[in-house]
């Protein structure tokens, strides 16, 4: 089947109506909760839903918050170009959720905290908390700006959907319902947007398969094009995607994003109980697997559709991220409303990610800075202050999205920020939760050095991109492209002469991007422990048992004696711990 690249299809009135619907409904949810909860004016109610959320909507919110439009547009393109090894992320997701649910969430939930970084002050000192919070704020604003701008640009250049209109609409609507309804509005809006994302994906899967010629054709073409070669067990850490880089490196990357990220922790501690929080995480795993499967399947179907005529190589699109919207306009363009449904799917990912970021930024700023400066602030004043912070960060994220339009190639580097910051963040929380003897100097030093090494690695990779034999792109064909009157942008870029490559560029800088988090994590933990060793460990009596997770219990389950040896003098006996908590309280360090 030859692709004619019909480009006469554009957005129609019904498409705009469908797209506008998600903004109207999301705003309506904010208004609903603003009216419903108008008598509950405490900051606790606004920021963490009164800790009365159930597991179902929280699970949908968790999935929607981290499956952004970059996933909706970028993941199918990745499968199209590199093959279905993307599905191995399901292993990374599974390991990540298990570790988050069993290692991190119990500590955060039992500590009675609202900001994840509050834990760092309880465990170490205020300076560590402040440094970690500032890193999180900068990282989240930059990343959120890119999450808004990148997909809006891709959709604009293919569908001619107004770029600046979509950016400002996203910022305004997210700020509106975050400010009015607080966390409850964010969670229920995310749940709605998650449904829209799945429906949009399913529409593309069904119509794409039909237009390609059926499942048999899709399977045969994907098999012949090597797109179904999923498992590559090469241990080379320089290869972009192998079983090990995705399962191990992906686990560290997503643990940094999920396990110790304020957006995740805030939703988990908003649940009615620790059991509900864990249940939400495991239900969220099902959502992650569904989105992963839909994205990978969309990429396979898109490859089968363009089997003999790659739009990127032929010059019909400027960048790989535009392949998915181009494909959607080609298969759905004559069905009014359906292109709008897919754009709604992409922007549902954007709305949920931006809303989660705004709410989390407002929470950490209020808890980590405002409450420390105004210790006697009333609940009513605290609620209004929290709402004001939502407006400020909504404006900041929107401004960052506008700034991203002037960043050029730096956008690519900004997309790795979660990996560069997530690993060291994961490392400092691991030092606190897993190693009771770690002191504040070790935590602060390990964090800063971990961030420096992660940024050095990522920026080196940006200047010296890995050679193609390490990234392993699969062949694409234009043999079947029919002559058309379509305006082409350019053929696929011809590699330009690169800077002379040193040994460092061909080894360290060529590392798979999925290992950035692992590098930051290992650096933070090892250097943190070494600094602790040289400066003197924290006395056991200064560490509260509920701030530590005794994972040694798993490995020494057969011996009470060895378990107690591994406790390093801390008392983790359940009955004694309950009595101690009842006597001292969780927050006696504050």
TrEMBL record:
The positions making up the signal sequence are: none
One annotated Gene Ontology cellular component of this protein? plasma membrane
Q: Which UniProt keywords apply?
A: Cell membrane, Ion transport, Membrane, Sodium, Sodium transport, Transmembrane, Transmembrane helix, Transport
Among the Pfam families in the record, one is SSF
Domain of life, per lineage: Eukaryota
- Protein topology in the membrane: Multi-pass membrane protein
Q: Which residues cross the membrane?
A: 16-35, 56-76, 82-109, 130-155, 161-180, 241-260, 281-306, 341-364, 384-407, 413-435, 447-466, 513-534
Alphabetical GO biological process terms: sodium ion transport
Query: Which compartments does it reside in?
Result: Cell membrane
Database matches in Gene3D superfamilies: Sodium/glucose cotransporter (1.20.1730.10)
In alphabetical order, the GO MF annotations are: symporter activity
Q: Which family does it belong to?
A: Belongs to the sodium:solute symporter (SSF) (TC 2.A.21) family.
* Cross-referenced NCBIfam families: sss (TIGR00813)
Q: What is this protein called?
A: Solute carrier family 5 member 12
């Amino acid at each position: 089947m030859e692709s004619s690249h019909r480009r006469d299809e554009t957005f129609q009135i019904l498409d705009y109506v469908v797209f506008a619907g998600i903004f109207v409904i999301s705003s309506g949810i904010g208004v609903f909760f603003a009216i419903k909860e108008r008598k509950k004016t405490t900051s606790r109610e606004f920021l963490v839903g009164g800790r009365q959320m159930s597991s179902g909507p929280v699970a949908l919110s968790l999935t929607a918050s981290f499956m952004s439009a970059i996933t909706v547009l970028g993941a199918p393109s990745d499968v199209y170009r590199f093959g279905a090894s993307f599905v191995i992320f399901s292993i990374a997701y599974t390991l990540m959720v298990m570790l988050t649910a069993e290692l991190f969430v119990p500590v955060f939930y039992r500590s009675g905290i609202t900001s994840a970084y509050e834990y760092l002050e309880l465990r170490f000192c205020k300076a560590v908390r402040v440094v970690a919070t500032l890193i999180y704020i900068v990282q989240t604003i930059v990343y959120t700006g890119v999450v808004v701008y990148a997909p809006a640009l891709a959709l604009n250049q293919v569908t001619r959907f107004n770029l600046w209109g979509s950016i400002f609409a996203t910022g305004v609507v997210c700020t509106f319902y975050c400010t009015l309804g607080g966390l409850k509005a964010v969670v229920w809006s995310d749940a709605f947007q998650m449904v829209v994302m799945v429906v949009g994906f399913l529409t593309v899967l069904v119509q794409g398969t039909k237009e390609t010629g059926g499942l048999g054709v899709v399977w045969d073409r994907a098999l012949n094009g090597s797109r179904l070669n999923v498992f590559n067990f090469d241990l080379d850490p320089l290869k972009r995607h192998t079983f090990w880089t995705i399962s191990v490196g992906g686990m560290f990357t997503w643990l940094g994003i999920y396990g110790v990220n304020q957006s995740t922790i805030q939703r988990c501690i908003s649940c009615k109980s620790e059991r509900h929080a864990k249940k939400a995480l495991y239900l969220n795993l099902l959502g992650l697997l569904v989105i992963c499967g839909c994205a990978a399947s969309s990429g396979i179907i898109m490859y089968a559709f363009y089997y003999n005529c790659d739009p990127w190589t032929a010059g019909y699109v400027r960048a790989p991220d535009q392949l998915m919207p181009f494909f959607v306009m080609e298969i759905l363009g004559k069905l009014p409303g359906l292109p709008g449904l897919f754009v709604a799917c992409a922007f549902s990912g954007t709305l949920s990610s931006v809303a989660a970021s705004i709410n989390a930024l407002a929470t950490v700023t209020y808890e980590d800075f405002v409450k420390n400066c105004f210790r006697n602030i009333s609940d009513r004043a605290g609620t209004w202050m929290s709402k004001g912070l939502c407006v400020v960060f909504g404006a900041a994220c929107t401004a960052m999205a506008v700034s991203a339009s002037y960043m050029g190639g730096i956008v690519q580097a900004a997309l790795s920020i979660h990996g560069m910051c997530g690993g060291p963040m994961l490392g400092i929380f691991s030092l606190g939760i897993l190693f009771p003897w770690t002191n504040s100097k070790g935590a602060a030093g390990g964090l800063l050095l971990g961030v420096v090494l992660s940024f050095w690695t990522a920026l080196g990779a940006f200047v010296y991109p890995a050679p193609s034999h390490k990234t392993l792109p699969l062949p694409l064909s234009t043999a079947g492209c029919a002559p058309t009157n379509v305006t082409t942008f350019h053929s696929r870029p011809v590699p330009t002469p690169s800077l002379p490559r040193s040994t460092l560029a061909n080894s360290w800088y060529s590392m798979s991007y999925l290992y950035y988090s692992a590098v930051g994590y290992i650096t933070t933990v090892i250097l943190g422990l070494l600094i602790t060793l040289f400066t003197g460990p924290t006395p056991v009596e200064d560490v509260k048992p509920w701030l530590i997770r005794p994972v040694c219990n798993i490995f020494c389950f057969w011996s009470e004696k060895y378990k107690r040896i591994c406790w390093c003098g801390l008392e983790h006996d359940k009955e004694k711990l309950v009595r101690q908590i009842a006597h001292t309280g969780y927050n006696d360090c504050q």
